[in-house]
Amino acid sequence: KDIRIDKRGEVSIIYVGDKAVQVYPSREIRTTSPIENYLPHITAEGCLNPIQSGLDARKTIELIHKEGGIAIIEHNATRTHPLFQYVMTNPEEDKFTRELFDMADATEVFNSYNTLWMVVSNAKAKRDAANHPIAKIAGTDLHFGTSSRLTRYLHSRRIGKAGIWLPEHDLDGLTGREIIELKRKDLKSGNYERLESYTDPLTFFMTMVPPIIFRNLAKLGNKLGLETKLHKDSIS
Fold this sequence. Notes:
Elements lengths: L2 E6 L2 E6 L2 E5 L2 E5 L10 E5 L11 H10 L3 E4 L4 E4 L3 E4 L2 H11 L4 E6 L7 H11 L5 E5 L9 H8 L6 E3 L10 H14 L3 E3 L5 H23 L13
Parallel strand pairs: 6-9, 9-10
Antiparallel strand pairs: 1-2, 2-3, 4-5, 5-6, 7-8, 11-12
């Protein structure tokens, strides 16, 4: 009940009692590339205007920076696959990703959802980015299955379990844009620490597998001309 929100444009600071949390407008964007069926995911962080999906990844990063936001390459060694869903990238795709390293602000070398059979992908992501000065961060990738009470509870258990520690700054009098620029500066200088923790199997299954199944069923129904009301993030 003791909540106060300080809106500063690109950043909102939420005060709960004596604690403060910074919230950034963020969106993970599916982009395209010159390589067939390779769709890199780029997160736009700190952009007030939505960035269009489906554009070339290089163009997407340019638009994010034009908006003053931070561009993050997500799970750079993992790609989607129509049958197996998640597999590791190949050398041709890795070459293109290295081009993105030269443009982006950070890349996610630890993804908490790359658990079970995909732990090797995180190891590969770290190797691929090891000799590049780009910031190497961690993330939870929690954005599936938010439409039911159970999945919201499972997600809540993951908050603060994977990400990065940034130094504290005096934010008094700073605008949201200035706060974003502080974060960009810390990323560029390596002034951060990674926090790595894998998603447990129950949360992984309940928040990832059913939504993927239902999403593909919905796509199949649409192709067959059937009306479907399956929500893409539903597990029930």
